[in-house]
């Protein structure tokens, strides 16, 4: 298929880190189909954020109906068919997104880049699951004819971010992560000690997180009262603006750190044995990975040693 295609669908549900890592792919698809109408199918959380990118003509929300929710499933089928898509780029490549190929009528299915059985442009690498998300999806697009991959550009997100009027220099600390995966978190006491070290160096620690991390953030603030708590106060684009202005960032393997790294902030990301950094590490100009089987064994000195000079 060439650039003459008029209707393109891109599927990317999430999570946040994966959406950040897909930015360059979104740009590549738009550059490859400059005259096409491109629709993104995503989840409600990411629609307001990605609308600001200017890369999509329309963004549809997928509420991901269950198999037994027949009415909602039929509504999704009608919606997909109404797009008259010439090609679909499935950047989610989950069992769910792959199943959507079957929602199009047999004999009139769009060209499909992904891993769905019977799709026209399958990603054939049997080792795709071992690749980092960026390389895996870049290879997938290359096999569908898109070989020019630009650097990720989040200038639109930085522009949309609010100014929190933080004292300069400041450092971002991202101590959260999935509540059901506590093994992916460096202890709050360690973050509190790191915050104290930053203060001693003239750097203001700024805490990023949500309601799920409230107890962790409260503990850090108790240890270091000088820390500024922005938990539950930042939008996705705010993270880009904060990252662009920060002297450094330290955090667990979690979505916000992907955004902060992507805008060029020097980042130290902490991994336990629960995750594989070779497949899911943040990408940016200056990303350092520290991994321990048990993050409780990661020393403060080891983290401090990775920080830029003067911090």
From TrEMBL:
Signal peptide: none
GO molecular function terms listed in the Swiss-Prot or TrEMBL record: transferase activity
InterPro entries for the chain: Glyco_trans_9 (IPR002201), LPS_LOS_Heptosyltrfase (IPR051199)
Pfam family, one: Glyco_transf_9
Keyword vocabulary terms for this entry: Glycosyltransferase, Transferase
Top-level taxon in the UniProt lineage: Bacteria
Record's protein name: Glycosyl transferase
Originating organism: Sneathiella chinensis
């Amino acid at each position: 298929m060439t650039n003459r295609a008029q209707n393109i669908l891109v599927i990317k549900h999430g999570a946040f880190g994966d959406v950040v890592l897909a930015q360059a792919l979104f740009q590549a698809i738009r550059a490859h189909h400059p005259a096409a109408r491109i629709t993104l199918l995503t989840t409600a959380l990411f629609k307001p954020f990605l609308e600001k990118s200017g890369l999509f003509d329309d963004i549809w929300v997928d509420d991901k109906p269950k198999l037994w929710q027949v009415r909602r499933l039929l509504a999704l089928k009608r919606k997909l068919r109404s797009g008259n898509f010439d090609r679909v780029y499935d950047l989610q490549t989950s069992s769910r997104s792959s199943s959507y190929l079957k929602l199009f009528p047999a004999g009139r299915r769009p060209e499909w880049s992904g891993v769905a059985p019977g799709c026209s442009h399958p990603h054939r690498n049997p080792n795709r699951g071992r690749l980092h998300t960026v390389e895996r999806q870049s290879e997938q697009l290359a096999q569908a004819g898109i070989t020019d991959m630009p650097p990720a550009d989040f200038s639109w997100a930085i522009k949309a971010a609010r100014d929190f009027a933080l004292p300069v220099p400041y450092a971002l600390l991202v101590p959260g992560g999935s509540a059901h995966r506590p093994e992916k978190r460096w202890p709050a006491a360690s973050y509190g000690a790191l915050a104290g070290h930053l203060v001693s160096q003239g750097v203001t620690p700024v805490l990023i997180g949500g309601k799920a991390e409230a107890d962790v953030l409260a503990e850090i603030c108790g240890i270091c009262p000088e820390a500024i708590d922005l938990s539950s106060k930042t939008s996705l684009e705010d993270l880009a603006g904060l990252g662009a202005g920060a002297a450094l960032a330290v955090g667990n393997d979690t979505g916000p750190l992907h955004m902060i790294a992507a805008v060029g902030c020097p980042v130290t990301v902490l991994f336990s044995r629960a995750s594989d950094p070779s497949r899911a590490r943040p990408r940016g100009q200056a990303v350092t990975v520290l991994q321990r089987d048990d993050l409780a064994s990661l020393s403060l000195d080891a983290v401090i040693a990775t920080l830029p000079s003067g911090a």
